[in-house]
Write a structure and sequence with these properties.
The protein is built from 18 helices and seven strands.
Amino acid sequence: MNWVSVPAVAMAAVSFYVGFSYLWLFTRRPLERENLAFAFTCFSIAFYDLFCAGLYHAASPGEGMFWQRLQLAALPLFTISLSWFVYYMTRRASRVPFIIITAWLAAMAAAGLAIRGELTLTAERPFVKVVHFAGTVIRYQEVDPGIIHTLQFVSMIIAASYLFYVLVKSLLEGDPIAGPLLVSLVPFFVAAVNDILVGAGVYPFIYLMEYAYMFILVSMAYVLQNRFIGLNREVEELTHQLEEKVNERTMELLLSEITKDIYADRSEETRAAAGSSVRTLSQDISIISNVDRLLSRALEKAIEISGSGGGCLFIAGDDGALEAAACSGMDEPDPGVWSEALRIMKHQAPPPGPAGGGEGRTLFIPVSLGDRPVGVCFLRRDHGAGAYREDRVRLAAEFIAQAASAIENAFLYQRMLDRTAAARRHSITPALEEKMKKAVAYIRDNYTSDISREGLAASLNMHPDSFGRFFKIYTNMRISEFINELRVRHAAERLRDTGDTIIDIAFAAGFESLPTFNRAFMKVFRVTPTRYREKGG
């Protein structure tokens, strides 16, 4: 085999492998037709490279003409496949130009294969080229192309120019995928011009098209990979948002069911059955509920039922220490409130009633599971609102009693998750732990910049999926959550300490948009950035 044929055969093998890989991917995801277009582009490149190898190995113009005909037929097939790849990736509104390109170039390819003689290729017009390159002599046993192939070349140049226009327009419209494709087209056009001039005998040099195809192939694969990564990130974000919405809706369902139950005028038997259904519902719901948010929502409902102006809900751990708390409509309570709540839990105070210290405007409701106290709900009426009415106190107490089951189940589930996470963290090898420490340190130093999971994984010599999984085990947070929390806390400091606008603070912290910043801030601090600044932190 002529040595110049070896690179062409090697590149053909690579193109076939990539093409079959993406064809298999298309069978799994048939709606993503860009994968099919890319697969056919790879196949057209592979066949062109094989036909080039045959031409370079030919011993006479007659033998070379056979491979030259196949080679020239593969060129329009490549242009057609590339055109549809650009169409599917840029999502152009009109398919008409691409249909015209396909029909015309397919006709050119068919004519080149079917027609013999002066119009295409004939052995009566040999055009052997001798090239001295790298100390060796290379002979291209070719014949002079006819008018049909000349028209084909012109048609391909026009089609390529249109694709170039489409990509430039997409790039100007902010489509990031157009950039890599445009960059790869530059060496491809240079190689195409070189091959046309060499083929026309303008100057002696080797053909470069088969090498330039690799730039196209790599850029297309890069674009597809980046798109897949981007879609995966969007799916993760949408899944996260969906989980939050589901949690929000299910908590609302539970608390509404409890509220409806305590307001209803039912017989003892009916009320017992309703209470049982609420307990069952709370067990199903609590395993997907955010504990902090569940406490906040339960407190807000208790404030609404009792006609309070604000309050706090305290939950104690098994050792009697404060484990969690939620406050609404008021600043953090003074230590005396927690002390009173702790006393009520320890001594299991009698059923609640209006407390002193405010002419009956404060209320302590024990939160119990059976005979075991687990917390206290503190409620307070606004100044001038008068004392609590007895029926309001009863309704609030009954609501808290019903909600206690869901709250406790949520805590049990959270403790189980914490223990599981701790056990999984112990399963990380020392080498992996060291990599996670490096990742955390890097993120802490650069969280205001754009941090790529793929780039961070590559710097640690890890696969992005494996890196994301072990990072979640090590920190109990996804990478995006970890970065967002650091950014939010950085922004909170600037909200407290500077007079900068919220949008400037958001962008300086690394967020790409104000809505994204607001959502992340609410998730961490449970208040909007504006409210946080008004409260002074």
